[in-house]
């Protein structure tokens, strides 16, 4: 297996067809096909399924490509350091539940390593997908929380996927509401206070159980429930309907504006918020910087 073969495979995956990849790589289609076939035979896997419309990535190919991209990134870093070659765009990805501090730290990394080009990704996504993304190396870091209710299930998945959980901070649950909400002047809010207001939560797709919920106390029965997919929609509904959600209490006025505020929720629960990492895999310089930046945007514990 060579770096050139890895580049061929990654380019084919990005292009979606052998012909387009061959044009981009300036090689013949038979040469590219044979190179991919050779690496599949060497690794004893099928990276692609061939169809009349092009190629699709197999499940084992998806994982292989994640490692291949990591290897190519490390090779590019070596060339940047020791050879006078044209720099390729650095790549870095984070998958996270919907936390403003995760966005702020991502911004810090981009500012620190700002250059002529880069290819960074921030996925605010569902809990199960965060675990899958880090497991398959689509993202180098995942951000999610553990609680007494979900810890056993999530920890089991973390272990099964050869991941580790690195605690960032412990948070007391807070209610996120709009600044004009009837409860906005309360110093603390109880669950009884919230009974008549819409409960807003992030939809979790096929894994829509309270174990994978982004909101602590999601197992409680509520009369009014609204599920959404993105943070902007949730905050718009909080403003328009006097809805509420439950989260860490860490909020960014720069990102979310003055209209959303956090109030302590009177419950005996805690959220252990942390970073998911691939076990025994060295971190890139971007991942190290991201983890350091997170410390500047979360409470000291």
Polypeptide structure, described:
The protein contains ten helices and twelve strands. With 301 residues, the chain is an alpha/beta fold. A five-stranded mixed β-sheet has the order 4-3-5-12-6, with helices on both faces. α1 packs across α2 (18-25), α1 (3-15) packs across α4 and α5 crosses α10 (285-297). The chain is elongated and about 70 Å long. The model has no long low-confidence stretch (mean pLDDT 89).
Helix-strand layout with pairing:
Layout: H1 3-15, H2 18-25, H3 29-43, E1 48-51, E2 54-57, H4 59-82, E3 91-96, H5 100-112, E4 119-124, H6 127-135, E5 141-146, H7 151-160, E6 163-171, E7 174-178, E8 199-202, E9 225-228, H8 231-241, E10 245-247, H9 253-256, E11 260-264, E12 271-278, H10 285-297
Helix pairs in contact: 1-2, 1-3, 1-4, 2-3, 5-10
Notable features of this structure?
single chain; 301 residues; alpha/beta; three-stranded antiparallel β-sheet; 12 strands; elongated
N-to-C terminal Cα separation, in Å?
46 Å
Largest sheet: 5 strands, mixed
Judged by helices, strands and strand pairing, the structural class is alpha/beta
| Portion in helices | 25-40%
Beta-strand content estimate: 15-25%
- Could you spell the SSE succession in H and E letters? HHHEEHEHEHEHEEEEHEHEEH
Mean pLDDT, as a whole number? 89
Helical segment count = 10
Order of strands across the biggest sheet? 4-3-5-12-6
Tell me the radius of gyration.
Answer: 22 Å
Number of strands: 12
Oligomer: single chain
- The low-confidence parts are none
Shape: elongated
């Amino acid at each position: 297996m060579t770096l050139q073969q890895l580049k061929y495979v990654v380019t084919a995956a990005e292009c979606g067809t052998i012909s387009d990849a061959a044009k981009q790589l300036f090689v013949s289609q038979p040469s590219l096909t044979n190179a991919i076939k050779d690496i599949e035979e060497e690794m004893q896997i099928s990276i692609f399924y061939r169809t009349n419309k092009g190629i699709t990535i197999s499940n084992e190919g998806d994982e292989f490509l994640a490692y291949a991209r990591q290897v190519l990134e490390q090779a590019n870093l070596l060339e940047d350091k020791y050879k006078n070659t044209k720099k390729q765009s650095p790549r870095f990805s984070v998958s996270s539940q919907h936390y403003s501090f995760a966005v702020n730290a991502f911004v810090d990394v981009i500012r620190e390593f700002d250059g002529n080009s880069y290819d960074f990704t921030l996925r605010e996504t569902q809990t199960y997908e965060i675990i899958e993304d880090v497991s398959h190396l689509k993202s180098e870091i995942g951000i999610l929380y553990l609680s007494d209710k979900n810890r056993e299930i999530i920890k089991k998945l973390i272990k099964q996927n050869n991941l580790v959980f690195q605690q960032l901070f412990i948070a007391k649950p807070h209610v996120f509401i709009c600044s004009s909400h009837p409860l906005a002047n309360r110093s603390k809010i109880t669950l009884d206070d919230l009974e008549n207001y819409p409960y807003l939560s992030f939809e979790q797709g096929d894994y829509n159980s309270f174990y994978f919920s982004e909101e602590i106390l999601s197992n409680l029965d509520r009369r009014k429930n609204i599920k959404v997919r993105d943070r902007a929609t949730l905050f718009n509904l909080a403003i328009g309907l006097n809805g509420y959600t439950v989260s860490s209490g860490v909020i960014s006025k720069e990102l979310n504006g003055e209209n959303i505020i956090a109030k302590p929720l009177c419950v005996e629960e805690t959220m252990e918020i942390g970073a998911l990492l691939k076990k025994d895999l060295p971190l890139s310089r971007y991942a190290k910087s991201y983890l350091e930046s997170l410390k500047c945007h979360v409470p000291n514990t």
